[in-house]
UniProtKB/TrEMBL annotation:
This is Ras-related protein Rab-2B-like. PROSITE patterns: RAB (PS51419), RAS (PS51421). SMART domains: RAB, RAS. GO terms for molecular function: GTP binding; GTPase activity. The keyword GTP-binding applies. It holds the Pfam family Ras. The keyword GTP-binding applies. Keywords: GTP-binding, Nucleotide-binding. NCBIfam families: small_GTP. Belongs to the small GTPase superfamily. Rab family. PANTHER family: DRAB11-RELATED.
Amino acid sequence: MLVGKAGQESFRSITRSYYRGAAGALLVYDITRRETFNHLTSWLEDARQHSSSNMVIMLIGNKSDLESRRDVKREEGEAFAREHGLIFMETSAKTACNVEEVLLGKK
């Protein structure tokens, strides 16, 4: 979930209701914007607090097609996912790289 600071809190109150009964969640950050990666801990805490303990959470680094503008190393995403027990993938919505795999739950 990528949200600007101004709308972040009001958006959160809405998203909390969606966690109830959810089988899974995608935490998505933009590999070209460090601040989106820096907010992951907060979003993960929110997801875990408002969902069942067996909900599957995937960490998705998006915009992998913009390698030259990368601000978050793949290894950082992998380490965050490993530390928090998440499935990790990098995708590109523009080129559709790994998008189908994410939606089908394939790693």
